[in-house]
Amino acid sequence: MSQNTNIFPKEFQLMRDYIEESCGIHITHEKIYLMETRLTTLMIECGCESFFELYKKSQEDKTLKIRDRIIDAMTTNETLWFRDESPFAIMEEVVLDQMKERLLSGKQQKVRIWCAASSTGQEPFSLSIVIHEYLQKNHSLRKDQFEILATDISPTVLYLAMAGRYDHIAITRGLSDRLKERYFKRNNRVWELDSTIKNMVRFKKFNLQDEFAILGTQDIVFCRNVLIYFSDAFKKDVLKRISRVLRPQGYLFLGASESLINYSSDYDMLRDSRGLFYQVK
Ligand SMILES: C[S@@+](CC[C@H](N)C(=O)[O-])C[C@H]1O[C@@H](n2cnc3c(N)ncnc32)[C@H](O)[C@@H]1O
User: Fold this and answer.
1) Over the range 218-230, which residues count as b (16 or more CB within 10 Å of their CB) and which as e?
2) Domains in the chain, CATH or no CATH each
3) pTM of the model
């Protein structure tokens, strides 16, 4: 058994490999504590006395429920409104203008945006707020010309996102008072998102290991703050597959700490005064 942990090296390896095979999340040995803190309650709840037993029980469970709960527990769901600001400013000031041109010229009928790891909804709902505000200033466009698909592997975060209800802490993180007053209604301790903004987003449970083609061609992909949890090989694979679902010259937005360097040459890096974004070649 390693120091400061109740997990034996062999069972850590088994569980680590199982998690990576199931969802791509790569857990290094230094993160053994993370596995322990996140899976111990589940281990006890499932009537197991060790991580090895939990692993075996999950393997034997044909319903895959235990596997899904392991994945759910191992995901990091940190998010906030308008995270990093620049992707949303670039959308508003650069990308939507281009999309407008394509829609008005009849080159395309719809703009499709995929938010690939949407967590509790702040990212796709920030996007729907940006689009909604853009439409208020651009009357030649219609709401039904924009589709936002938000996916995540974790059923817990999807459930929260679909409700569009946030507590006091979540509502203050990244959201201005103006937008809060405009798009949320307070109901005791809960802030409820306006249905106009909420209904612009369609949520779906989706594992980034699965085939992207079923999601259809996309104009813009937000794949932010999720690749950091994956191995280098899986990062490359996800980026390659995103490049294939993007329309020619479609856009990719990554998290502020993420970059394509060493992972993909399928995109051009675009530098804007507000930040970086990528365009498929
Ligand atoms: C840190 S959050 C990022 C949320 C949002 N994109 C942002 O930047 O604020 C990472 C999300 O990725 C999801 N995730 C992790 N592995 C995934 C996978 N294999 N497929 C789909 N979603 C995954 C997690 O459930 C989590 O909600």
Assistant:
1) bbbbbbbbbbebb
2) 9-74 (1.10.155), 86-280 (3.40.50.150)
3) 0.96
